[in-house]
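Review form for a predicted model. The reviewer records the input and the model, then writes brief findings.
Reviewer: anonymous (R2)
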Amino acid sequence: MLVNASKRAAWLLLIPCLSWAGAPPAPAAPSVEVTGALPKTGKLALKDLQAMKPEKATWTDRGKQVEVEGVPLGKVLAASGFEPGPMDRSGPPADKRPGYKKVVLVTARDGFQSVFSCAELAEEMGPATRTLLVWKVDGKPLPPEQGPFRLVVLSDKEASRSTWAVEKIDVIDLRARGPAPARP
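Model under review:
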């Protein structure tokens, strides 16, 4: 009887300690990391992307039309401070529109990558490559294996640059590789 009473007392002392430890931490909010040659880098959470005025579009994925919701990749870059720069006709050619000499490397959780020039994503250049960083398909969040974010390239005829489970958007300044060789 004494043993049972001491065990019960030990449990009574332990229960407040267990409840004080609290619940496990909540999972982190979905985000995508924006890095590289931009004025502002860091993680963009879903709420940040939703504040960029999402768009809806119809996209054909493997022969099936779906409605996707997200923001153009160009808007994500603009929110990170991307600018094409001046078209200075009086300066050296290498200094014209320095932003358009950058590329965007989109990387998925599994290592898949797709590449875009910043110029092709800029609407002011003319008919741009239409990309959306989406979080909804047919009004529902993306399934775990495809999300939380997916890059959809609406203007490509095949989905080879569309990217599931986007984790990182990296902007690379190609001018850092050195000047282009002069032509004879």
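Findings: Strands lie at 31-36, 42-45, 55-61, 64-72, 102-108, 113-117, 131-137, 140-141, 150-153, 166-173.
Further findings: The chain has one domain: 28-174.
Recommendation: see findings above.
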